[in-house]
Design brief:
Blueprint lengths: L1 H8 L8 H13 L7 H12 L5 E6 L2 E7 L4 E6 L7 H15 L4 E6 H7 L3 H15 L7
Parallel strand pairs: 3-4
Antiparallel strand pairs: 1-2, 2-3
C-alpha cells in the first residue's frame, strides 16, 4: 500500500501504526472506493493512530469532503497538485461548506507535499491551522 510506503520513508515505527493500518485496510476491503487517493489513506491511518474520530468521504449538501472531524468542528481536505490551480474555486466551496455546517466550523486544506514531508505531524497541523483560522476570522454577524 502506497500510504504505508510513505510512512516507512519517514522512518516511522510501523509496528506502532499496525492497529491503525489494519483498521483502514478493513475499511478499504469493505468499501474499495472509500478513498480517492493514497494520501487520503495515509491521512486516515494517521488520524486513526492518533484516535481522531473522522467521517470519511462525508456528504455536506451537494459536496463530498475528504474527512469530517466532528471533535474539531472541521473539514479536512487533502489537496493534490491539481488544487494549486483551483484556489478560487476551492475558496468558494469552503465558504459554502462552512455555511452549511454552521458557526464555528472550518475547512482545513493540507497539501499532499506536506504529508510527503512528515505525515505524523498531521494532527499538530490540524490544531495549528484551526487556531490560526479561529483567531483570524471575525464573524460579522456576531460582531
Amino acid at each position: 500500500m502506497r500510504a504505508c510506503d510513505i510512512l516507512e520513508q519517514q522512518n516511522t515505527n510501523m509496528y506502532a501504526y499496525k492497529e491503525a493500518i489494519e483498521a483502514v485496510e478493513e475499511v478499504i476491503s469493505e468499501k474499495p472506493d472509500k478513498f480517492d487517493s493514497s494520501y487520503e489513506v495515509l491521512a486516515a491511518i494517521v488520524l486513526v493512530h492518533n484516535r481522531i474520530y473522522s467521517k470519511m468521504q462525508f456528504k455536506v449538501g451537494r459536496y463530498q469532503v475528504d474527512f469530517l472531524l466532528p471533535e474539531f468542528k472541521a473539514v479536512l481536505e487533502i489537496d493534490g497538485d491539481r488544487h494549486e490551480h483551483r484556489k478560487g474555486h476551492d475558496s468558494v466551496r469552503d465558504e459554502k461548506i462552512r455555511n452549511m455546517l454552521g458557526p464555528g466550523w472550518e475547512v482545513i486544506r493540507i497539501p499532499t507535499d506536506r504529508l510527503d514531508e512528515n505525515a505524523k505531524k498531521l494532527p499538530e497541523a490540524i490544531r495549528k491551522v484551526l487556531q490560526y483560522k479561529k483567531t483570524g476570522r471575525v464573524d460579522w454577524r456576531n460582531a
